[in-house]
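W.,

You were right to be curious about this one. When I first looked at the sequence I had no strong expectations either way, so I just let the prediction run and decided to look at it fresh. Below is the sequence, 168 residues in total, followed by the output.
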Amino acid sequence: MQFKLSCLIFIRDDLGRVLLIKRRKTPNFNTWSPPGGKLEMTMGESPYECARREAAEEVGLQLENADLSLFGYVSEKSYEGTSHWLMFLFDCLVPLNRIPEDIDEGSFNFFTRDEINHLPVPPSDHDLVWPYFDRRKDGFWAIKADCASGSFNLEIEADPTRHIKEDS
């Protein structure tokens, strides 16, 4: 299977609501997810370059590296039985206080975290993405999931709170 590298950008407004896009394309057709996209690997694009480019292309937000905080990654083996994914998770430190215009990829809206829990999101995101977004200030998270069986087996490869537990 092909290995794909991508980034997700968690952009909030001044009220703390998170910007999501309702996807019109696969993967994750007709579900809500943070904006983002695949790295331009033929160009040697870094995850930060990808996050900045996707923020500009999708929502019109011009960012610098200092405007982004990389808080983890999710590695998914055999996602939807078609490919492996490595997704870099970025917290955007610059608020966006307007709903971006629709694009080919989908339409946007802001949601509270509670509302997100009740939206149609990619099935694995409830376990692989959102709990670590909620704990992003703890430090860097590394999550691995084997999706080959139709469900997924989750493993936390790096837990920033582990040393706190051991020192207590």
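Here's what jumped out at me. Helices lie at 47-59, 113-116, 125-128, 130-134, 162-167. And, maybe more interesting for your project: The longest strand covers residues 68-79.

Coffee later to discuss?

I.
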